[in-house]
Structure to design on (382 residues):
C-alpha cells in the first residue's frame, strides 16, 4: 500500500539535495505518492512521473525584510500541501531550517478544529550538524527541532555519533546510509562522450566530483594529478562548480596542466562521465558520507580519498579503494600511480568497488529501510 509523503530538501547540486531527490524518485517507482516542497525544482527531478508532484514555495520580498523568512513560507506551504493532498508524513533533509518548518506545519495542522497529527522525519546529512548546527546562535533551535522530530536518521555512524555527542540530543538516531542506483551508475556507456574524446591518445582518466567548497580541498586534487601526470600520461575531469574553482584553475595553469585538466562544470548525468574514468580523487577535509565516492565505486572507478568522517564506512582500504590522511598528496598520488601502472589490478579493484556498492549501498537495499522506518513512525504517531 503506497504512502503519501512530502519531501523537502535544498534543490541544488549538494549531496543532501541529490539523495533526497533520488529517494523521492525511487519511492515513486515503488508506488508511493511523493510531493516535493521547496523554493525551486530539485535539479535531478527532470523526467515526469505520475507519482511525483512539485510544489514551489513562494517567498515574498518585502522592504521590511533584509532576509525574506523562507522558513515561515515553507512551513505555511508544508501545512497547505499536507492538507490539500492528505499527506501522511513529511520527510525533511538537512535540519536547518527544514525541521523547524516541519515542526511549525505540524503544529498548524494540529491546531485546526479537526486537528490531525502530521509526523515528520528529519535526515541529517552532515554540514547541517558539523557547521550550521554548532553555531551558537543556531544550536538551541537545531537541537530542539531534532528532538521534536518523530523520527531521525543520519547518513553514517560517524554523523550519528557526532550529533549525539555535540548536540546532546535525546533521540534514537537511526543510520540509513546514502545509496546509488546500481542500474544507472555502472560502467555501461549509454550516451554522452566516449573515453576517446577526453583521452584521444589513450591517456588515463582521473575524476573529481564536488561542490568545490573549501572543505573539498580541490587544489589538493590538482597537486595529486600533477604528481601522477609527470609519470603517466593522464587527463583530469573536474566535475562541479563552486567558490574554489578559480583557485584550482589558476593552480592548473601555474603548473602547466591546463590542457590536461578539464573543468566540466555542473553536470546532470554524472554517471556518463564517471563511467569512463579510472580513479576518483576525493581529498576532502571532511565527508559525513562521501556520495561522490559511492557513485564512482558503482561505476567501477576506484576512489582514493581521505580517512575522515564517514568515508571509512564506505571505502574498505586496499579492497574497494584507498584512504590517506588529509593533505597527504604524496600518499594519494602514490596509490594512484600503483593502480595506473597495473591494468589488471586497476580493473580488479574497480570490480571490487562496484561489488561493495552493490552489496551494501544499492538503492534496492536502502529504500526498503526508509519504507520500514516510515511505517514505524506512522505506527507510533497513530
Amino acid at each position: 500500500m503506497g504512502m503519501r509523503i512530502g519531501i523537502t530538501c535544498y534543490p541544488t547540486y549538494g549531496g543532501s539535495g541529490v539523495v533526497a531527490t533520488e529517494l523521492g524518485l525511487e519511492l515513486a517507482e515503488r508506488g508511493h505518492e511523493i510531493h516535493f516542497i521547496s523554493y525551486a525544482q530539485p535539479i535531478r527531478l527532470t523526467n515526469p512521473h505520475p507519482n511525483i508532484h512539485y510544489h514551489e514555495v513562494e517567498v515574498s520580498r518585502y522592504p521590511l525584510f533584509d532576509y525574506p523568512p523562507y522558513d515561515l513560507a515553507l512551513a505555511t506551504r508544508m501545512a497547505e500541501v499536507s492538507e490539500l493532498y492528505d499527506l501522511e508524513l513529511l520527510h525533511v533533509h538537512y535540519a536547518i531550517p527544514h525541521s523547524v518548518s516541519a515542526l511549525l506545519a505540524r503544529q498548524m495542522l494540529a491546531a485546526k478544529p479537526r486537528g490531525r497529527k502530521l509526523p515528520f522525519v528529519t535526515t541529517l546529512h552532515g554540514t547541517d550538524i558539523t557547521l550550521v548546527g554548532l553555531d551558537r546562535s543556531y544550536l538551541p533551535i537545531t537541537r530542539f527541532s531534532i528532538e521534536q522530530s518523530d523520527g531521525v536518521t543520519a547518513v553514517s555512524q560517524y554523523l550519528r555519533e557526532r550529533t549525539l555527542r555535540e548536540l546532546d540530543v535525546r533521540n534514537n538516531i537511526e543510520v540509513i546510509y546514502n545509496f546509488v542506483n546500481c542500474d544507472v551508475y555502472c560502467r555501461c556507456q549509454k550516451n554522452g562522450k566516449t573515453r576517446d574524446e577526453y583521452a584521444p591518445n589513450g591517456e588515463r582518466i582521473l575524476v573529481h566530483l564536488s561542490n568545490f567548497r573549501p572543505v573539498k580541498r580541490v587544489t589538493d586534487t590538482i597537486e595529486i594529478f600533477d604528481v601522477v601526470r609527470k609519470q603517466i600520461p593522464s587527463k583530469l575531469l573536474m566535475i562541479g562548480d563552486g567558490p574554489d574553482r578559480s583557485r584550482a584553475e589558476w593552480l592548473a595553469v601555474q603548473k602547466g596542466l591546463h590542457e590536461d585538466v578539464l573543468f566540466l562544470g555542473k553536470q546532470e548525468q554524472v554517471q556518463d562521465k564517471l563511467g569512463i574514468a579510472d580513479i576518483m580523487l576525493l581529498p576532502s577535509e571532511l565527508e559525513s558520507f562521501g556520495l561522490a565516492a559511492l557513485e564512482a565505486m558503482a561505476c567501477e572507478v576506484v576512489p582514493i580519498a581521505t580517512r575522515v568522517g564517514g568515508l571509512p564506512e564506505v571505502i574498505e582500504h586496499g579492497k574497494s579503494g584507498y584512504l590517506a590522511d588529509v593533505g597527504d598528496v604524496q600518499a594519494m598520488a602514490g596509490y594512484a600511480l600503483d593502480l595506473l601502472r597495473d591494468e589488471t589490478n586497476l580493473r580488479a579493484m574497480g570490480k571490487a568497488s562496484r561489488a561493495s556498492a552493490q552489496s551494501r549501498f544499492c538503492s534496492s537495499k536502502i529504500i526498503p529501510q526508509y519504507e520500514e522506518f516510515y511505517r514505524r513512525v506512522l505506527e507510533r504517531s497513530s
About this structure: The two ends are 17 Å apart (CA to CA). The longest strand covers residues 33-38. The chain is about 45% helix and 15% strand. The domain at 195-360 is CATH 3.40.50.2000 (Rossmann fold).
